[in-house]
Amino acid sequence: MINLIFRRILYAIPIAFGVSVVCFSLVYLAPGDPLQTILPSDASAETIALVKAAYGFDQPLPIQFLRWLGRVVTGDFGQSVATRRPVILEVTGALSNTITLVMFAVPLAFSIGYSIGVAAGCFPGQWIDRALTGTAVMGVSLPNYWFGIVLVIAFAVEMMVLPATGMGLNGSAGFSIFRWEDARFLVLPVITLSMVPIGIISRTTRAAVAEVFNQEFVITLRAKGLSEMAIVRHVLKNSLPQVLAVMGLQFGYLMGGSILVETVFTWPGSGFLLSKAIINRDVPVLQGTILMLSMVFVATNLLVDLLQAQIDPRIRRA
Amino acid sequence: MRRIMRGLLATTALMLGVWGAASQAKAQSVVTVGMTAGDIPVTTGNPDQGFEGFRFVGFNLYDSLALWDLSSRENPSDIKPGLATGWEIDPANTRRWIFKLRQGVKWHDGCAFSADDVLWNYARVSDPKAPQYLTQQMALTRTYVTNIESMEKIDDHTVAITTKVVESLFPYSMSYFLMISRCKLEALKYDWNAYAAAPSGTGPYRFDRMVAHERLELVPNKDYWDPKRVPKHDRLVLLPMPEAATRAAALLTGQVNFIEAPAPDTIPRLKSAGMQIVTNKYPHNWPFTLNFERGPMKNLKVRQAANHALNRGEFVELLNGFAIEEYTTAPPGTPYYGNPVKYEFNPKKATALLKEAGCYPCKITLAISTSGSGQMQPLPMNELLKSQMEAVGFQIEFKVMDWNSLIQIARSGVEKYPEIDGYNGSRALLDPLSALIKPVWKFHWSPAGSNWGHFFDQEVEDTIAATLNEFDADRRMGLLTKLHELHSQHALMIFVVHDANPRALSPKLSGFVQAQNWFQDLTPIVVKP
Fold first, then answer.
1. Can you give the pTM of this predicted structure?
2. What's domain A90-280's architecture?
3. Residue B267: partners with Cβ closer than 8 Å, 6 or more residues away
């Protein structure tokens, strides 16, 4: 097991390097000016040149990349062009706000998605399967941007029972999930954020459970006279590695903080930070956020690999 | 029993505490603004986030030597004395301005404002060797101080500013140069991040609290030097809310009580909920800036045809009435408006002009953005523009891009993008230099300045030279009026609409006067309980 962990961590290094190259290149391939936020729209060429030199954007791209990489490996992600705050503070602050959302969205999405998938998979082709699968497809298909706005109109604007936007009465700095006045700000974004993972997890679970039910060992179990409940237990255990892989991806998706959901609810998480960095072409924040999020993805996948190996020894031997 | 009594007492005390806190919170009158900005504007001096940054943060925390008079709804606003009580040109040198500074002004940290502070602030944005120099502030200020050659202290309350070239409109530039406290930055040992979290100016509001990216809270500066502008509420909370739907929902749910730029289609819903919709003309236009180097737009007849092709009433209708038809650069009522050519909707004339110009069908490429500061509803408006212009004989290819990419085109100039015949960028026409001179002056040919399409006309050049050398206000206004009329005679742009700048306020707010300006004074707002 230790060898497996070591091997997977080694695999993560080239992935992280590849991600950093790709994210650096993509940021520069996109049209636009990284100094847009701090330069007036009628800034002269002379002013632009002065500011570019001061921020190091006048250097050739490979030099800029190597300098950035050199700083990143020492833990220095640089400063935001727009706010001058250290990028590491910007990203960790935003990630902690997204984690607050994820803490509620993950149990909600995973438990509902898994339950729906299991129920549908146990009765393939029957009305309950069709009804639940239909619901799951709807969850995946609804654009969460639109769904979030609908929830805001219904519960915030019309019924006035929940707030429409923001994170707590006084912002994230004083936010407490143990105070209802703050916690109520979570309800609508958590529901909106959970919709897509509920749909995807339930579809995957349904397919995995139905597939395992068709395997020969299930016939053998029935022939041996096991109760249906005991058979379902075996089926669920055998379908779990496949479901876990999708759950891992969805966890990464949720940690990335959906840009659209966080923008609709002005939730100051990693997705919102990323969207602002894209709009402003705040290159250091953009690079830092993408790199951190990709590391979260890599770490999540590593964890899922280890869990799968723990559940299914065949994977460990592969 | 004693334990029960203790428990009861504790509960009562807690409830009283909660009730006390609640009534204290109720007693506070708070103006909470949903801004269109995507982030809190920087607090280190001149703000980012365009003029919205100036409107809500810059001019609330800080003052400049000249301030904008925002007290009237009816009259176009102009500059007035700010930290300077007045200014005059040196009779012996028309490049040397003497600014008399206001006495008795205190920074929020208690230090006194003096001439040394003005010089120190100039070094902050111009001298890379000065400890207070900050590149970001240099970038945000450069446009306004670029004509300054030197600054000198005459006495503690007088400074002289010498410009590089004669510029009779120079005091306008000083209205955009905000002064920050030297005392505070020195006390913080030039730590700009610490300063950003505890800024100090002379403005009508003091900094109180900030949650990065989420909210900025300001409280009244009770010692403000202009007693008429001491805020009439207890707190001003600024929240960035770039989504129009989010701002409207926040207003309807009571999370905010003042929103910027509600989308036109949400206004009936806001009105039905009892919200006040305030609107006014202001110096803004939504035109296409054109290419004078190459292509069809070099031809005056093609430019006139484009302007005659537009039925501007339909644009106003599309925007639910929250726009004003635009026939020339500035909106009617501007002091230098004069008698410009009015390009009425006349499709037959437009087609005839295109045929006369030998450009029929007339293929043009226009750059437009999907959104952006002051861009109104760019996609539906441009769809309408395309349909109207194509109906008279144009063939339009749109290059659609995000706001940042469009700004890059605007900054880089026509030489880098010769294939583009025009771009759709809203313009702030606050001062005559930005509104009338920069877009047509050869000195400002891109990329050195904002004459993007390299417009040139000798009569225009002569009028500009005369304007900048004219120090008599009435005679200068005559020259500016002539310049404005020349804009329309040359059909300088494709003129479409002026924004009517709607805002929505809770019925509990009163006292707000929407000035004809990009900046607004929030200090008179009273919040009813």
1. 0.86
2. Orthogonal Bundle (1.10)
3. B277, B320, B322, B502, B504
